[in-house]
Amino acid sequence: MSDTNKSPRKVQQLFDLTGKTALVTGGSRGLGLQIAHALGEAGAKVVISSRKAADLEQAVMALQDAGIDARWVAADAGKAEDIQRLANETLERVGDVDILVNNAGATWGAPAVEHPLDAWDKVMNLNVRGYFLLSQAIAKASMIPRKQGRIINVASIAGLGGNPPFMQTIAYNTSKGAVVNFTRALACEWGHLGIRVNAIAPGFFPSKMTAGLMSIAGEDNIAKHAPLLRIGDDEDLKGAALLFASDAGKHITGQILPVDGGVSALVGG
Fold it and tell me: Which residues, 6 or more positions from 136, have their beta carbon under 8 angstroms from its beta carbon?
């Protein structure tokens, strides 16, 4: 339905998430916690999830210290039974979920010719299968019946192309490429249900997942390959997440937004 007969809202109103509830997986640290802060600072009630209760307790304390209504549910987003329990417990504790952020992820470094099958499966189960199962569970129970919802998938610029030879992460790149088209396909299928599906594709950010690469390549060396000559920091995902989560982005779906200092704009990535 068109909103052309309504008086345009002010930009602050468009970005306001007061009264909304968000579920963020992989939300106890790093990019997930940064996104949880962004949504909470905009007024949303936030539920974060990861495998370790101790990490979640610490993260919720930080969110609450920032004035955010936050709570946690421990779950392994690589296991189907945990994903369903996460969905059920979240809905029981806070009611309908308006915003789902699929962020939990894993990587594995190995030459493609020697890549272990169990490591491949671990990465795919968490980075792709987990996104699908949680999106399905939350949409079926909460978003589709109300014909509204916002799903934000955290992809990566690694899903937009290949890597330098020293970055041997074939499973991770493949999984993030799958997330890119999963986002597009789901957006097209669920658009008529009032559900918007978009993805953020971060470049290099300091995190536990990138620590090994940072130590090998060096932060300064990585930064000099970006047009902005920097890597991401602890606020660079906030604006993108809030755009996709709020009414400011109500006419945007099926899109992949790189947040990478311009790396993906270079010829050949």
Answer: none
DSSP state of 51: S
How far apart CA 20 and CA 44 sit, in angstroms, is 5
Give domain 11-260's CATH superfamily: NAD(P)-binding Rossmann-like Domain (3.40.50.720)
pTM of model > 0.90: yes
Long-range CB pairs of 185-188, under 8 A, 24+ apart, other chains included: 186/135, 186/151, 187/253, 187/254, 187/255, 188/254
Q: Is 49 left (phi over 0), alpha (psi -120 to 50) or beta?
A: beta
Q: What is the mean pLDDT of residues 4-26?
A: 93
Question: Residue 227 burial by CB count (10 A; 0-12/13-18/19+): exposed, middle or buried?
Answer: exposed
Other CB atoms within a 10 A radius of the CB of residue 232 amount to 22
Separation of alpha carbons 247 and 17, rounded Å = 9
Task: Dump pLDDT digits (tens) for 84-142.
Answer: 999 999 999 999 999 999 999 999 999 999 999 999 999 999 999 999 999 999 999 99
Catalytic residues: 172
Residue-level pLDDT at 244: 98
Which DSSP helix (H) or strand (E) runs through 177?
helix 170-190
C-alpha angle 66-103-132 in degrees, rounded to nearest 5: 140
Domain ranges of the chain: 11-260
Give me the residue label for tokens 């809905």.
91
Coil/strand/helix, residue 78? coil
d(C-alpha 174, C-alpha 109), whole Å: 13
Distance CA 56, CA 58 (A): 5
